[in-house]
Write a structure and sequence with these properties.
Helix content: 40-55%
Distance between the termini: 57 Å
Structural class: alpha/beta
Largest sheet: 5 strands, parallel
Number of domains: 3
Radius of gyration: 28 Å
Strand order of the largest sheet: 2-1-3-4-5
Strand content: 5-15%
Number of helices: 19
CATH topology of the largest domain: Rossmann fold
């Protein structure tokens, strides 16, 4: 995105000199007074300000104070004569980034601008890498040959820029595999930015992905980069890509073809440098046949397809995953339990796990919170559906009923976690608020309701 630079100086010769030097660095705005400069700042998202200290109507220090009220983080470079160095030092104390003495050294100006742009990139990268560090560090626990093959394929795909489509049932670990690919790629030190397509309302989809300019729509009080821009030369991950509206599929296809995009409210092109990974629990071939997903976009995204089978088809992974979460949540909750009894282990192996890895995580956390104050988890400490499997009464609850109960439990947990804030709960569950409201009504979930875990 082209940077915006504001020059505030009452001398025309200074304005013209700086415009000439900075013409290759971004879009230039010019003001002849502090008041005029503040008006430009209020209407535009300025990246750097060059501010003269000595001006007739309002001096630079007063203007600097007002600029910092508008945007405390904006870099302001003060312009001063040699005799005014003491004033420049005072400006530094007020939050100025640096100062330049007149007459200017052209190379010094360019170096300051480049330094500011580099620091901006570093801060942006550090922020996102910090936010993603905990998620990226989550291990992929497995023992089965199926998962060995999945990770072997992911490892072979990692060094290249080819698009990867990860498929598999909900909760099977698709995002973990996407993060693994990023972590093993040459882009590992760049941001990994996830877009959860099912959690973004259609009306906000375009602005979330492409960003927007100040004033582009009601409520756009400040320009904001989109996920594609933030990803930079890192990795962009479209989770549940099958939920993307058709209108956005067309725009995404154009971006992938032309390798550039524009913010909402702007015609200025931004180069797309990120690698694209995507995932879905839907059968995209069937979605294409039904007209709900574009065929050309499908082939763009699925250069390398990777399928993750449900955990019930890779029984060897059930106990390693269960013990991983037993250790993880044990440390979090301070629970004593360190192992399952052989009978409890057999129950875990016999269960179908319709919710896959996500259900394992949910169940183990629940067990430790409610029954973790003992050394060994026994059969009687497991939820009723697990005990029914052991006693041969698994037909008492159908597969569909167990899926519904599991989903209902997840929704209730999320609503309670966020004090019944549906917007936050929907984002946490990676679904739209509309879908969440539908399921709340479908399952008859009420705010004063407590789950019956049948312990």
């Amino acid at each position: 995105m082209t940077k915006k630079i504001l020059i505030i100086d009452d001398e025309k010769s200074v304005q013209e000199s700086l415009k000439l030097v900075l013409s290759d660095s971004g879009r230039i705005f010019v003001a002849s007074s502090g008041k005029e400069g503040l008006e430009i700042l209020s209407r535009n998202e300025i990246d750097i300000v060059f501010l003269d200290i000595l001006m007739p109507d309002q001096n630079g220090l007063e203007t600097l104070r007002e600029i910092k009220k508008i945007d405390e983080m904006i870099p302001v470079v003060m312009l001063t004569a040699v005799s005014k160095l003491s004033t420049a030092v005072e400006a530094m104390k007020l939050g100025a980034y640096d100062y330049l003495t007149k007459p200017f050294d052209v190379e010094e100006i360019r170096l300051i601008v480049q330094k500011i742009f580099n620091e901006f990139k570093i801060k942006q990268k550090v922020q996102f890498l910090t936010d993603e560090l905990e998620k990226s560090a989550e291990p992929i626990v497995y023992k089965s040959d199926q998962m060995k093959e999945v990770l072997s394929l992911a490892l072979r795909a990692a060094p290249h820029d080819s698009a990867v489509l990860i498929t598999g049932p909900t909760g099977s670990g698709k995002e973990l595999v996407a993060r693994f690919i990023h972590r093993e790629s040459p882009r590992k030190n760049e941001p990994f930015v996830a877009i959860h397509c099912a959690a973004i309302p259609e009306t906000l989809f375009e602005s979330e992905i492409f960003g927007y300019e100040k004033g582009a729509f009601t409520g756009a009080f400040k320009s904001k980069p989109g996920k594609l821009e933030v990803a930079g030369s890192g990795t962009i991950f479209f989770d549940e890509i099958g939920e993307m509206p058709l209108s956005l599929q067309i725009k995404l296809l154009r971006v992938l073809q032309e390798h550039e995009f524009s913010r909402v409210g702007s015609n200025e092109p931004i180069k797309m440098e990120a690698r694209v990974l995507s995932a879905t629990s839907r059968d995209l071939k069937k979605e294409v046949e039904s007209g709900r997903f574009r065929e050309d976009l499908f082939y763009r995204l699925s250069v390398i397809p990777i399928y993750i089978p449900p955990i019930k088809e890779r029984k060897q992974d059930i106990l390693p995953v269960a013990y991983h979460f037993l250790s993880f949540f044990g440390k979090q909750t301070g629970a004593r339990a360190k192992m399952f009894s052989p009978e409890a282990e057999q129950c875990l192996l016999n269960y179908d796990w319709p919710g896959n890895i996500r259900e394992v995580k949910n169940v183990i956390e629940r067990i430790l919170v409610l029954r973790g104050n003992k050394d060994i988890i026994n059969v009687e400490d497991l939820p009723e559906e697990f005990r029914a499997v052991q006693s041969g009464n698994s037909t008492d609850a159908s597969f569909e009923e167990r899926v519904r109960e599991f989903e209902k439990g997840l929704i209730l947990d999320a609503l309670k976690k966020f004090s019944w804030n549906k917007s936050k709960a929907a984002e946490y569950l990676k679904m739209s608020r509309r879908v969440l409201n539908y399921k709340v009504e479908k399952y008859g979930i009420r705010q004063n309701q407590e789950k019956n875990f049948s312990y």
